[in-house]
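Open question from group meeting: does this chain pack into something compact, or does most of it stay loose? Before anyone orders reagents, we agreed to write out a predicted structure and look at it together. Recording both the input and the output here so the notebook holds the full record.
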Amino acid sequence: MVAFAQDLIRVPSLNPPGEAYLEACEVLGNRLKARGFHVQFIRGEGAPGDSDRYPRWNVIARREGRGSGACVHFNSHIDVVEVGHGWTVDPFAGVVKNGLLYGRGACDMKGGLAASVIAAEALIEAWPDFPGAIEISGTADEESGGYGGVAHLAKMGLFSRPRVDHVIIPEPLNKDRICLGHRGVWWAEIETHGHIAHGSMPFLGDNAVRHMGAVLQAFETELYPALATRRTAMPVVPEGARSSTLNINSIHAGPPEGVKGLPAPVVPDRARMVIDRRFLIEEDLKDVKGEVRALLDRLAATRPDFRYDLRDIFEVIPTQTAEDAAVVQAVALGIERVMGKRAELVVSPGTYDQKHIARIGHLHDCIAYGPGILDLAHQPDEFVGIADMVESAEVMALALSQLLCCRQEA
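Structure tokens returned:
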């Protein structure tokens, strides 16, 4: 398992821009083909970011059992984020030290991918006549929305019944936790308009940055206090994420500075803000958008010359798999048998590829479960504990056995 995880880590499948996707898919596909899986390589043609230079490759492998039954699918993304600074080990060497496996993607989520492969191989070796089917996929672009990966495959019907019944995504959420879903997200761009003029005579222009400042002030005095009062019944972790949140991702205005940072002497006539609104399952997306638009409309009615545009960038509806769903119960049973404790059921503050499986595939028997600590993802010296990988693989193998067995008996 460690050696296979090292093979995956040593492929620098960086996103952006989307490098070495096919190489990563081939590492996974060749391994599974040698173990009797039928392997397909599927390009996410037409998806955002897909190009001849950076094609969005995915691999999906299927092993049929000896009789009818459920299909259990393990889905992992193969892309990793940029390396960044502060590493003390080679981020693409797969260094093993003191029981830990280091590397970019070790935690998020190539360690989980390796654990799921070992779980499936162990099940096949122990129970060669298993009923149903086992699928394992390595998919592109989760770190940038998943449109060239799971979303593309879901549109092809590859994450829907009757082909697939249960999905486990080995994201790093701690080995004793089962993630049922995630909050919703709305990314949007707000643009305020002004009138350009000479910087020495700003009274002849209309400063779009000042208008944007009014938006920020309204957020501080109206929107942020309102969001802080809303709480969800979803078991979101950490605790602070059980409220609605708003993050200001970026603000852009005015012409770029010139030589030595000297500014152009003009009044900026455009200012743009990108916002990241995370909302709860108890909130309606239409109301979430309407709340921001109503705030902007009040400014337009009360502030002279205030004009704005509001544009959608990205949206995801909250999702939460039922606690009594078969995949939840099977993984919970595995955690109890391997670790001797009850599984903690949680919801993620951010989204992952379950959003596409639920939204496009209409398959809701889906969870995230895998080794690793989420706080280590995207960090320098990212690592996953080898003992955690072993225990998670045992849990996944037991869950796989339970899901295949129970469907056959039914």
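Observations to bring back to the group:
DSSP finds nine helices and 16 strands in the chain.
The longest strand covers residues 184-193.
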